[in-house]
Amino acid sequence: MIPIRDTIPSSRTAWVTRALVVLNVLAFAWELKQGARLEPFLYQFGVVPGHWFVNQPSDLLDWPRLFVTLLTSQFLHGGFFHLGSNLLYLWIFADNVEDRLGHARFLLLYLGSGVVAGVAQILVSPTSAIPMVGASGAIAGVLGAYLLLFPSARIVTLIPLGFFMETMMVPAFVFLGFWFLLQWVRGLQTIGQVAEVGGVAFWAHIGGFVSGMVGTIGCRPQRRW
Fold it and tell me: How many domains does the chain have?
């Protein structure tokens, strides 16, 4: 299912959402400029689960830099499709969440969900040496918040039917519930597997989604008539 838009209008401009879109695009442009240096660049600023575990006391000295990667990795992407799909979800769902939470609390929820997403993937794949990059964990937090705040909203969705695409109005709780269930099933399938190449960090999505729901409850969102 491919979301196109939702049916909930925002009452104010989503400045933080727009800024996040711009920052992600600028960070991707910075990636493209790396050329042959891209791989060490991703290892430096992405989250590498295997780097977090201590084999000798001196490894602890690297932890301050590793904590920073939980933030920097949220603005890096593995390609145009990765960037485009993430920004599509961010653009559709984030403005309403920002409208209800306010700019500052929305930014805190977004970045916090991204951090929790990174930690979740580290715990599930502790030996992985593949850099984890992307805003999907943080955006999953936005989806979790949207589910709580606007469960009855309608999502205009493209649904593939063979060689054709059908447009349907899908309730938000159905769309997001199906999305989360898909992440959960695929996440269970990855437990115990050793990744040799980059893939989808399903447990980061799960961790971010749950974090977004918990954070929304704690934020006590504003009521808007």
Answer: 1
